């Protein structure tokens, strides 16, 4: 094997390890990235999008990925979310740092990952609730396939995504790569992630993650 091939193989291995650590961190984030639950109703587990979805529902074709640009704002009209997006990194446990608890209306974007609208899977996280009330993604599990998600970017373009499924995935038998990895190679995809399931006051953790999957279907202004 040539030196170049060895280097490429090592690079692929390191990328795989980094991706695995990130996905484990996302799972851990679903356990602890929320404040004290105040009794708001939590979603059940399972494929929340399947209920009421016609078996022959048609979604629009995917759009060609856009160039790279950072997100400024995310709008989800059907659940009346209009929120600023802030860049976030990883905490010491390898989980995406959520927005500060004193900013429950802000969405965090994993800035070391894919930019929304570019090819690959961009990751957005937000609180379902905090000590003071519902968070920005409190109604995330009520979304259904076909709903629109718009992301305003710093290149004055708006990436328009269409939701294809909504899942509330329990921690038991959790497959992080299936939840957060790309669904189709070459697509521009978006994941919206928050806590879900049942809140355990003793452990201060939720039993599941809400994972909304969307893909780029157009461009606005």
TrEMBL record:
GO terms for molecular function: hydrolase activity. Keywords: Hydrolase, Membrane, Transmembrane, Transmembrane helix. The chain crosses the membrane at residues 12-30. Pfam families: Sortase (PF04203). This is Class F sortase. It comes from the Bacteria. It comes from Streptomyces colonosanans.
């Amino acid at each position: 094997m040539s030196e170049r091939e060895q280097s490429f193989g090592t690079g692929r291995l390191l990328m795989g390890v980094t991706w695995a650590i990130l996905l484990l961190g996302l799972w851990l984030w679903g356990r602890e990235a929320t404040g004290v639950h105040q009794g708001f109703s939590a979603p059940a587990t399972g494929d929340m999008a399947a209920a009421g979805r016609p078996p022959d529902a048609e979604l629009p074709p995917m759009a060609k990925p856009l160039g790279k640009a950072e997100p400024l704002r995310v709008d989800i009209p059907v659940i009346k979310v209009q929120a600023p997006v802030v860049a976030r990194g990883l905490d010491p446990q390898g989980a995406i740092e959520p927005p500060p608890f004193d900013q429950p209306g802000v969405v965090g974007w994993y800035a070391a990952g894919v930019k929304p609208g570019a090819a690959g899977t961009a990751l957005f996280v937000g609180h379902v609730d905090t000590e003071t009330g519902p968070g920005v993604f409190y109604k995330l599990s009520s979304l259904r396939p076909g709903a629109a998600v718009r992301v305003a970017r710093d290149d004055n373009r708006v990436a328009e995504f269409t939701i294809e499924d909504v899942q509330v995935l329990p921690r038991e038998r959790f497959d992080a790569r299936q939840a957060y990895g790309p669904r189709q190679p070459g697509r521009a995809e978006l994941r919206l992630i928050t806590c879900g399931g049942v809140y355990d006051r003793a452990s201060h953790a939720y039993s599941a993650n809400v994972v909304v999957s969307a893909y780029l279907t157009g461009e606005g202004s």
